[in-house]
Amino acid sequence: MADPISIVGTTIAVVQLSDRCIQLLRSQIGPSKRSTGEIESLQSKLNGFDRAMKQFQRYVEARRSADDQDEGPLNDLDYLKPAVKDCETALHTIEDFVGKSSLKQNILGAKFDKKLGRALSSLSEARQLFTDVVVLNNNASSLRIEQHMRNLSAEVQKIQQFPENSETLNSELRYQYRDRVRKWLAPHQESNVNQYEQLDRHLRARAPGSCSWLLQHDLYHQWLYDDEAPPLLWVEGQPGLGKSVLCSTAVEHAISLDKCATFYYCRFDSQCTAVQAAGYLVEQLFEYLWRKDEQIVHAAMDISKKTSYPTTDGLLAMVRYLIHELQRIEVLESGDTPKFLMFLDGLDEEPQEEEALKPFVFKLLEEFPTVLKIWVSSRPSQRIQRLLKQYPTIQVREHTGYDVRVYLEGILDEVSEGGPNEYDIARESILPKLLQRCQGNFLFARFLADFIREGSFRPDDLPQKIQDELPTDLRDIYRRILQQYKDRKLASELLSIVAFARRPLRLRELEEAMAMVVSNDTGENLNHRNKPWNIDNIFYPLIEKIPNRDEPANPFCHITHSSVKDYLIQNPSALQQADGRQHRIGEHLIAEACLRYLMQKCYSEPFRSTWAINEAIGGHHLLTYAAKYWDKHLDAVESTPRRSELTYGFLCSRNFQTLLQVQSIAIESHFGFFSRKRDNQIHFRKVFPQSLDGKGGRIVRDYLHFVGEWKYLLDCHCGDEDGCPVYEHRGNIIRCLSGLMGPDSFLKNMKEKHPSFMLHEGDYDIKHFQPGVADGFSVDGSETAIVISRPAGAEGFHLTINFWNQRYPNSPMHSTTSQLTINEKRSNWFLYAGNSSNARKSLSRPGPISFSEDFSLLRIGSQLFLRDEESSFKEIPNFQNPRIDLTRYFEEFTSRDGIVVLSRRQNRQEPDVQPGISDSDLGFIMNIMHGWHNESPSTITRKDAEPTRERSCSSLGSSIGSPDSELEDDYSSREDDISSSEERLSESDVGNSAEESYSEGSTEHASDLDTSQDEYDGLSEAGSSDSDNYSDDSRAEIILSHEQLLGDLTGYVKDSSDDEDEERGRYAGTQRYRPSMPTSRTTKSKNECDRLGSIAVLDLRGAEPRQIFHFDYELPVMLYHSPPVIHPSKPLVVWPLCGGDILFVDYLQKTYFIRRVLATTRFTRHVCMKVHFSHCGRYMHIATIEAQNKRKAKMKSKKEESLKELSIAVFVTTHRLSERKTTRSPPTLVHRVKASLGDFVGFTVSKLPFTFTWTKDHVYVTQSSYRLSVVRIDLFKKDLRASPSSPMIPREIVLLPASAQQREVRYFPPTSTDKRGVVLIGSHRSNRSPTVEIMPAHISHVDIDVRASPYRYPSPPVGLYVDEEKDLGGWVPAGTGQRITNRYRDGVLIRKIEPFDAEDDCELEDFVSPEDLK
Length: 1414
Description:
Elements lengths: L3 H25 L7 H31 L14 H18 L3 H64 L1 H19 L9 H11 L6 H5 L1 H8 L6 E5 L6 H14 L3 E6 L8 H19 L3 H9 L7 H22 L6 E6 L7 H15 L4 E7 L3 H7 L4 E3 L4 H17 L5 H17 L3 H13 L7 H7 L5 H10 L4 H13 L4 E2 H11 L25 E4 L9 E4 L2 H9 L17 H11 L11 H10 L3 H13 L5 H11 L2 H13 L6 E4 L4 E4 L11 H19 L41 E3 L15 E4 L5 E9 L4 E10 L7 E11 L5 H5 E3 L2 H5 L5 E3 L5 E4 L2 E5 L5 E3 L16 E5 L2 E6 L8 E6 L4 H5 L1 H5 L22 H4 L53 H8 L21 H9 L7 H9 L25 E8 L6 E9 L10 E2 L5 E5 L4 E6 L4 E6 L7 E10 L5 E11 H4 L12 E11 L11 E16 L6 E5 L3 E6 L5 E6 L13 E3 L14 E4 L8 E5 L12 E3 L4 H8 L9 E5 L8 E3 ...
Parallel strand pairs: 1-4, 1-5, 2-3, 3-4
Antiparallel strand pairs: 6-8, 7-8, 9-10, 11-41, 12-13, 13-14, 14-15, 16-23, 17-18, 18-19, 19-20, 21-22, 22-24, 24-25, 26-27, 27-28, 28-29, 29-43, 30-31, 31-32, 32-33, 33-40, 34-35, 35-36, 37-42, 38-39, 39-41
Helix pairs in contact: 2-3, 3-4, 5-10, 5-11, 6-9, 10-12, 10-13, 11-12, 12-13, 15-16, 15-17, 20-21, 21-23, 23-25, 24-27, 25-27, 28-38
């Protein structure tokens, strides 16, 4: 019997449980407590709140992007996310409840109230949190405003105190600016006599009481004081009338009146140009205004900064500003109209008076006719007469008679002082005769005075002596002076050197020149015993010394007057001796002195350093003069066979190399190029004498070729602080490699730091040279092939293929020659050489001729030729099979053991080619590049939906051979439906001869070798990185913008536009670049990508080629210069496709699979991908050139107009292949290195400026540059436990010719048989059509010189040998290695997966919770 107590307890428990269940049921089931109106009102309020919060989110985002430095609480959107989420939850709850039927509302109303209550409760808490955040943000903003105001107050105090504390600093700064402006206007030149010294010398020479007539002259008075008078006054007179003294008197008078007066004395022996003379005048005007107002220096400094040296336009701009300042200052001081007086004396002594006057003086007269007053004094000249005939003229001879009389009276008084009265009587009779003979000529009167002082005579005899003994004119005076020299040979040498020097010589220069004249042996060093002693004792009166401010003991020596030089030119035999010995006076002596000086034995080897050059310049006084003027003097003398032979011998010797070295250091702008407005052409400075007996043309061409290649070093005058990349090597002439100029150049004997060569037989003359049409280089640099073309009838041409061996012991050797005759139509030549209407197809096509890497095959158009043992090429029979479409047009090829792989990335056909036009000239594409960038894109940049294709998949069992097979087999692909290789594929029926299948359970990093996870983690360097955070889809490929694809069109890789790339950046984590999957035969839609890549494997071992594999693949993005490769022993072909996709083919089993390697950084695309197998066949290496949009990588630049840059890097990975299933298992990553190659604005992709050289342990990546820019990258880890090795670069710099920046450059390291490294530089076909082009983002004067040279000539391949230890200094870490922090961008070959599409794949179902089921 049951226990009653237990029954009662059980009953009570059941009743209690039932009550609780009923209460729980009532809480979940029943009508809502809220009315319909309340629910609608609440829904409206929540919708408003949701809109407000989202609008606030956008405001905060905009504020945060506009000011990255703002760290206020509202800048973190995490505060807003819970509130927005709760609001959306409440809205979804209401919408779900309102959408239900009335029955369900009555049943689920209680549950609705409970769920809504929780959401509203959370919103209530969020409200308080949001209020607190706003308060905190306002407080923070207030604190920031207060801090900003305190900072502003401190700055204001500093500004208020600045005038008091910095007055001294400002004064020092103004004086520094003053010195810079003066240096810009009038650069110091030792050979030019100081103008103020000239003024002082003329005033000291003025006879007492003379020149006073000028101040009373009406024309002078009107010119000086009358505003309505003509602004120019011409003072004309014969030589010796005292025009310079008269001009100096006028200058002195103007200065005494506090007028703004500037002056310039032209001299026959001065080398000042018209621009330099104008600079001296403006410099004096600047100094005059500086003394009145120092503040003018700031604006003057700004004007001088616009050009590095003064030009006519720059001087005009400066003088305009200064004249305006003169007007301002004079009006403030006196209220009068200001006057700017400009005095030009001896204008007739300038070689081209018109050139001196027109550009500067007359331009100022037109602009300031009432302010500017110009004085011109000169001898009579037809040119000056034509220019100045409309202006008032003062004839000096009409007014100097009185002054000469006063002067001669003084001389006679001096002579007769203390004598008898008869002297006074005689003076009255002598003076008229002296005046009659002088005819107002002051110079003649001075010489007469010297004769009178030195003579001895009685008063009664003086008239007769005047008649018989005193000179009759200047010519007679000069003849008598010359006859007084006892050593006439010495006098002829002295006068010849001084009178015909191109500038005033210093005394030490003169002594060395005279010592070289008496030297008998050409080539011997200067004998100091041949220097004459006290030579200055015989100077007077024809030669005078002018003080040298820099070297007081080494004064300048020059002819006293221009009439002296005129007499010597007209009377070269004036020093002939009585016995008939000739001592001719002429320029031949200084010409021979300069040439012999440069041919001294001490200059037979170049100087070792810049210090040695400067030391020689300081001790060898005539060196710089001879280096600058030697050819000018030779041009002025008669050419003789001996002189021509001596000159040519000098040019071919190393003495000429030393001359170039001295000119590069000591002669300013000697290697510069200049342009003239009148012909708008580029000119260079004349450097060779014209007397070279027909050899001059060839010498000049070779010289221009040399200077064009090495100007960036020869003309480098930067300072060390300028960061010039070649500054430390300037003057190091042996770095200018002359062997690159050809074997027959006159420069071939120059000393070189690195032995260089040109791959050319026979005479290389740039005037007649025709470059080859193609070059080929073997993989180890041992052999080079040069293809030369010439016509052969209407439909063909002959090809000559010359092979060169660079590894020959001493220098390259021409090994063999092969001849071919080609039919253009049969070779489909026009498909490769013709211009295409599609710009992309035109730029991305290969050249008409190319070689395989081992030189075993030659492609000419679409014909293949096989090389035999005698290095002759024979056409492969029946290769152009009409059933194999790829043999009609293919771009890349490789071969091994009778197997040939052909590939192309576009299908160029006859309609694509414009007839009769050849676009082998790449310059055409480059010139219109910017025009194309303004057009809309012509290709699809992103495909949001993948085309539907049939796909056949093999089973898992078919992929795994046995239970112990490795996981890597899951990646293998089997042929499901293999089409016949002989079946021709039509354009409308594109298909593949094999299909890829996937195994869902495959592992990404499987390998047949046991690679632990720890080891892999060490490889990937896993870690978080803000810039590489792909939380949404870390395997996503960055989509290329339309402008990057336009880079395919223009031949340049350029970064994308801001707007588009910004939009794409938002989806970078979710959208994916999706090339179409390979499918079975289906017709390609017109909306799909219009670029189809194809690869075919052909077996040539039969009677005719047989296609054993074919594969097509859509290429939305172009990949350049990425050919297929064949495994050295396995039937494996690897071909980079695009976007990181790589095709692996087993052509015997007709299987394939595709793996992808992602770009290592964001906003990056692959440009080139080179695949290489190791010699043992166990490893595969991939070298990828990546281009990153540098600006986008740094998020958003604040300068919208800043220059766009591309950061170029090379990423090298090594993958281990499966030993047993090499062709079916994906390789495993074992090593990787990334190296930066620099920042660039753009570069060509038709031929990349980067080349690769593979060795057993390294890959060498060489860049086209004016210096050897090579990076050595290890292919394997030296220590498995060590971190990845760093990229290595040479320690020392190796300079290359300037054209190397527009040519392919390759570096080949030493081999086991040749310990020399070889640098090979490809052909240069023309200046308008560079082979390659690369534009650095940050340029120096070197980059400008490299591109600006107008003298760039066609050239065959050239090269040089280097010693890695001696010349390169060994290899050192580059410091450009880059750490890869993103696990999915570390070079691992990943399996392609089906992408997620937000529209097609998001077909969602309502979620039903367990509570709903209850």
